[in-house]
Amino acid sequence: MDRPASALKEILENSVDAGAGEINIQLAQGGIKLIGVADNGAGISKNDLPLALTPHATSKINTLEDL
C-alpha cells in the first residue's frame, strides 16, 4: 500500500496537469482515513475518456464505471 503522501502527490500532480489554479485538500487521520481533493482544473474531456481505458494509459482503470 502506498503512503498517503505518495497518493496525495499523485492527485496533486493530476490537478496541476488539469490546469488547476486553486486546489483544496481535506485530510483525515493524516490521509489514512480520507484524502479529499477539489480543484478548478479542466479535467478530462468526454472525447478523451476512451483513451483513459487503453492498456498503455493506465493499469488502474479497466472500465468506464471505474471513473
**Gyration radius, to the nearest Å?**
13 Å
Mean pLDDT rating: 86
How many beta-strand elements?
2
Number of helices: 2
Task: Record the strand order, biggest sheet.
Answer: 1-2
Write down the domain tally: 1
Q: Please report which band the strand proportion falls in: under 5%, 5-15%, 15-25%, 25-35%, 35-45% or over 45%.
A: 15-25%
Structural class: alpha+beta
User: What is the CA-CA span between the terminal residues?
Assistant: 20 Å
Which sequence of SSEs, written as H and E, runs from N to C? HEEH
Cα shape: globular
Helix content: 25-40%
Largest sheet features: 2 strands, antiparallel
| Low-pLDDT sequence parts | none
How is this structure best described in words?
The chain has helices at residues 4-17, 49-52; strands spanning 23-28, 34-39. The protein is α+β, with helices and mostly antiparallel strands. It has one domain. It is globular and about 35 Å long. The two termini are 20 Å apart.
Name some characteristics of this structure.
67 residues; alpha+beta; two-stranded antiparallel sheet; 2 strands; 27% helix; 18% strand
Brief summary:
By secondary structure, this protein is an alpha+beta fold. Helix content is 27%, strand content 18%. Strand 1 (23-28) and strand 2 (34-39) form a beta hairpin.
